[in-house]
């Protein structure tokens, strides 16, 4: 689980990039609504991951899967 809440871009994307370094089959990410969700989604897609998003109150839970 990568918790990117409280960080401003590009830090959330860099945190996800580090988590994907070893190409895991799945990574869960907590992110604040807005630019972080969009940027993480875009990055994950560029790395060949599918992204499912679930609202979690004011935040989002993203599940990245290969």
UniProtKB/TrEMBL annotation:
Keywords noted in UniProt: Transferase
GO molecular-function terms, A-Z: transferase activity
Highest rank taxon of the organism: Bacteria
InterPro entries: TusA-like, TusA-like_sf
Residue span(s) of domain UPF0033: 2-66
Protein name stated in the entry: Sulfurtransferase TusA family protein
Record organism: Dysosmobacter welbionis
């Amino acid at each position: 689980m990568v918790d990117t809440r409280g960080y401003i871009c590009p830090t959330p994307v860099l945190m996800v990039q580090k988590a994907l370094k070893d190409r895991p089959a799945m990574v869960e990410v907590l992110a604040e609504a807005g630019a972080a969700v969009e940027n993480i989604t875009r990055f994950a897609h560029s790395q060949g991951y599918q992204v499912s998003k679930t609202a979690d109150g004011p935040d989002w839970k993203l599940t990245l899967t290969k």
